[in-house]
């Protein structure tokens, strides 16, 4: 790859806003790939790999390929596997790191989960850089979501403040597929496939009862990509509830009356709800709110809530029904990657190694318009992607489910 190679952020032609300099170039990112010049001497390099946050299909594929690319492509012989996330980078808090060699990680991609272990929490970047500097680690690969990559940015900046040459390269990971500027995260295709399989079974269950209703909760805290694409893939979903789309339960145009009309017409219904819908459905007093170790709000189970509300409503209107609830959330994130994801994992790992060995830092490797590229950590962690309600994905969802475009009473 040549140093001047760039990829456009947007594939669309957009007229320049009034007053903008006509010579202002469009936003682009550096193309990922092997470079002519290396920053580090491979024989002297010490690299480390850390996995943080929730599980996702393909983590072990990424870890395996990072080790193989460092070992065989560049001749790096000292590779550390940090145990249980960032806590493993704090002296006395984590486990002793693994020494990673090809023969020891050869088959880990056959398994789901993470070979290195994971954790959530906020560790002090000073402590983590102390750990890295004490062991003379020059390259750190961070596999995780937006919180993990914000931690990676803090590590990089602490190292720079000390004048310590440390390359920090992130591989974005989230089952929600919602990291800002990242069009696809590894493991998402696998999760969609597994979730769609569950939905097909849930549809059979709903059809088996007269006025049978099955609710399936799918992961998606703030974005509904997984629920949406799994619903489209299954082709059996009748109602899809995601965080991006406001809806009301009650009232003549609300969800419950829409569901009632569906049952009166077809006598069964399959409802998919993303976990993040809990925030708009279930109000709590501030003192009752809880957060996990990474600072994420812990939602109450929206599936249980919906099941109760649907059953109560159908009893009120005199419509006999049977309501069941399925929660496959952890199942879809814990199995090995499907082949398309496994290929993508290995590509991302290769790009990450190329970036690190050339001395690049404070970036994630991703694809932009299908082209592998380097996205600065600061840009990638600013925002979050959401399902665009005027875009083709949501339009496909509405066409597939046949649900009302708007379930509000205003």
Structural write-up:
The protein is of the alpha/beta class and 410 residues long. The protein folds into two domains: 6-14 and 23-185 and 335-380, Rossmann fold (3-Layer(aba) Sandwich), CATH 3.40.50.450; 188-333 and 390-401, Rossmann fold, CATH 3.40.50. The chain is 34% helix and 16% strand. It contains twelve helices and 13 strands. It has helices spanning 59-74, 102-105, 125-134, 146-162, 188-207, 225-234, 255-266, 278-281, 302-316, 339-357, 377-380, 392-401; strands spanning 6-8, 28-31, 46-51, 78-81, 98-99, 139-144, 167-172, 212-218, 239-241, 268-274, 322-326, 363-368, 371-376. A nine-stranded mixed beta sheet has the order 1-2-13-12-7-6-3-4-5, sandwiched between helices. A four-stranded parallel beta sheet has the order 9-10-8-11. Helix 1 (59-74) links the parallel strand 3 and strand 4. The longest helix has 20 residues, at 188-207. It is globular. The chain starts with 5 loop residues before the first strand and ends in a 9-residue tail after the last helix. The model has no long low-confidence stretch (mean pLDDT 93).
Keywords, separated by commas or semicolons:
410 residues; alpha/beta; Rossmann fold; four-stranded parallel sheet; 13 strands
Across the major sheet, the strand order is 1-2-13-12-7-6-3-4-5
CATH T-level fold name of the largest domain: Rossmann fold
Q: What is the strand tally?
A: 13
Return the domain count. Answer: 2
The level 1 CATH classification of the largest domain is: Alpha Beta
Computed Rg: 23 Å
Structural class: alpha/beta
The average pLDDT score comes to: 93
The coarse silhouette is: globular
CATH architecture of the largest domain: 3-Layer(aba) Sandwich
Kindly report how far apart the N and C termini lie: 55 Å
Instruction: Assess the beta-strand content as a share of residues.
Output: 15-25%
- Which spans have pLDDT < 50 for at least 5 consecutive residues? none
The portion of residues assigned to helices is: 25-40%
Count of runs of 4 or more consecutive helical residues: 12
The H/E string reads EEEHEEHHEHEHEHEHEHHEHEEHH
What about the largest sheet? 9 strands, mixed
């Amino acid at each position: 790859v040549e140093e001047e190679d760039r990829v456009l952020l947007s594939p669309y032609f957009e007229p320049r806003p009034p007053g903008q300099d006509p010579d202002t170039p469009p936003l682009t990112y550096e193309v990922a790939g092997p470079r002519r010049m290396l920053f580090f001497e491979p024989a002297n390099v010490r690299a480390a790999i850390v996995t943080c946050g929730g599980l996702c299909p393909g983590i072990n594929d990424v870890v395996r390929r990072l080790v193989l690319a460092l070992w065989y492509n560049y001749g790096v012989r000292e590779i550390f596997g940090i145990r249980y996330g960032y806590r493993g980078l704090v002296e006395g808090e984590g486990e002793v790191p693994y020494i990673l060699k090809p023969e020891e990680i050869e088959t880990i991609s056959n398994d789901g989960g993470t070979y290195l272990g994971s954790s959530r929490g906020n560790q002090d970047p000073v402590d983590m850089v102390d750990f890295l500097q004490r062991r003379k680690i020059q390259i750190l690969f961070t596999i995780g979501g937006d919180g993990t990559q914000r931690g990676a940015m803090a590590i990089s900046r602490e190292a720079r403040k000390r004048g310590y040459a440390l390359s920090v390269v992130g591989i974005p990971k989230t089952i929600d597929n919602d990291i800002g500027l990242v069009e696809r995260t590894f493991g998402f295709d696998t999760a969609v496939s597994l979730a769609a399989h569950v939905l097909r079974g849930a549809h059979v269950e709903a059809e088996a009862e007269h006025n049978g209703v099955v609710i399936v909760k799918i992961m998606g805290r703030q974005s509904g990509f997984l629920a949406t694409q799994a619903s489209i893939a299954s082709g059996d979903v009748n109602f899809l509830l995601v965080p991006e789309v406001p809806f009301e339960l009650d009232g003549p145009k609300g969800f419950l009356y829409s569901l009632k009309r569906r049952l009166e017409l077809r006598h069964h219904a399959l409802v998919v709800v993303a976990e993040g819908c809990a925030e708009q459905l279930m109000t709590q007093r501030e003192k009752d709110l809880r957060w996990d170790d990474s600072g994420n709000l812990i939602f109450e189970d929206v599936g249980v809530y919906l099941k109760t509300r649907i059953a109560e409503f159908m009893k009120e209107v005199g419509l006999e029904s049977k309501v069941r609830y399925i929660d496959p959330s952890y199942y879809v994130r814990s199995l090995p990657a499907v082949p398309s994801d496994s290929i993508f994992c290995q590509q991302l790992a290769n790009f990450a190694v190329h970036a690190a060995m050339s001395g690049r830092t404070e970036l994630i490797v991703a694809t932009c318009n299908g082209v592998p590229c380097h996205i600065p950590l600061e840009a990638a962690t600013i925002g979050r992607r959401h399902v665009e309600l005027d875009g083709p994905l949501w339009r496909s969802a509405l066409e597939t489910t046949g649900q009302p475009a708007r379930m509000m009473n205003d």
